[in-house]
Amino acid sequence: MIGKTVLRALGHRKEAVKRCASFASRASSTAPQMSIPSSEESSKPLPFFRTRSSPTEQSSSNGGQYYTVDPAVKKQLYLYGGIPKEYDGLCKTFKETCIMVREPALEIMHYLKSSNFDNAAIRYCLYGRLGTGKSLTLAHLLHYGFENNFLLVHVPWTPYWFKHPKEYTDCPTKEGFADLPIDAAAWLMHFKNQNAHLLADQNIITSQDWEFSKREVVKKGAPLSEIIEMGINRVKYSTNCIEALLQEVKQLSDMKRCKTLVVIDGFNGFYDTKTKVRLANFQYLPATKVTITSPFINITKQDWSNGAVIVSVDDNAFRREDHRNTIYPKGLLGVEGFEHLDPFIPVETKIYSNKEFDSCIEYYLDRRWIINPHAASEAGRKELSFLSNNNPYQLMKITTPL
Fold first, then answer.
1. Which of 156, 295, 350, 351 qualifies as a FRET site for 252, CA 20 to 30 Å off?
2. Is 308 helix (H, G, I), strand (E, B) or coil?
3. Which has the closest alpha carbon to 303: 119, 153, 125, 152?
4. Sheet harboring 122-128: ordered strands across?
């Protein structure tokens, strides 16, 4: 009896599978098809909105064009963050990751190419209105650093630590401070993944002994990766390992054993007066009282050479009661943060130019993101430009139902 019941169930399942397969075949015949370009197609001339130039090769002539990030590079650089989630979801729909070459990234890359790295690390600060591309500009610069063998110290988005902490505990060594052990260990994995090709270098070693407990010690001359593994395997000491790691990175840069590029998105989040981290006595702490903050504040100082620091300030990182609705670094950083970062080179991200807007629309049409015929017409483009005010994020959101 049971056997007959099972056979009937299997029969119904086969019929359901056949119906699903039939439906899928009909749907695929009507739905717009997208495919990844083959090696033969790679030799064909590209449309005006695309370029094959890598970040190192890009110049002002590539402004407004999209370049494709190799999937292997994306996995190494952005596996744990760096590309905004909504845009990353769009890239998965498009079956490719493309970043537009824009003026702020070109400007900073030009500065990096012209810099004398024997001097103190130069600091750059991206600012601009919401949705104008600060995070994607940092992702672009991160790729440039990767291509030019910079050791990357990258924080994808500081508010994640303070607004959505995975776990927090009272710091055993600093009274009135709190640790984020799981978040710190996750960042160490991110650092390890991004710099795997450089950490194998025999010159990337520790300059002193690091004692985390009587049993957990990293000796002088050990590979830098030992500190990273210590923090990942012994989560209790993950924040201490970040502090040791970043001190060693500064030493290695000064000794010309590596070039370092520090990239931090939402840097003003380190100076937030409100977090969701609290002590055992239920007292909420400012970000400056969370131990993971100090190492990253320290590495953005100008007391080391052979590297550069690129940060962004964003109104979404937090809102200061005394400086609402501002996009400028001084207002978002506050007195303490601005004095720490000064002097720096400010670079503004702006809305799309007419060339960038046309390039974006053509790319969306090419990827079948826009399939409404009216949206592709001249009148439709003017309407989209008016509704979005040429804001990259707003344009992406408005074109979603088209």
1. 156
2. strand
3. 119
4. 150-155, 259-264, 307-312, 122-128, 345-349
Give dist(CA 161, CA 180) in Å, integer. 8
Dump the DSSP string for 327-381: -SHHHHHHHHHHHHH-S-EEEEE-PPPHHHHHHHHHHHHHTTS---HHHHSHHHH
- List beta partners, residue 68: 98
Question: What pLDDT is attached to residue 343?
Answer: 95
What predicted TM-score, i.e. pTM, was given to this entire model? Answer: 0.87
Give Cα 267 distance to the centre of its chain: 13
Amino acid identity, position 338:
F
Three-class secondary structure assignment of 86-136 = HHHHHHHHHCCEEEECCHHHHHHHHHHHHCCCCCECEEEEEEECCCCCHHH
Low-confidence ranges of the chain (pLDDT < 70): 1-43, 319-324
3-state secondary structure at position 260: strand
Q: What is the pLDDT of residues 271-304, one digit of tens each?
A: 877 788 888 888 888 899 999 999 999 999 999 9
* Listed residue (260, 85, 109, 229) closest to 157, CA to CA: 85
Angle between helices 103-114 and 134-147 (to 10 degrees): 40
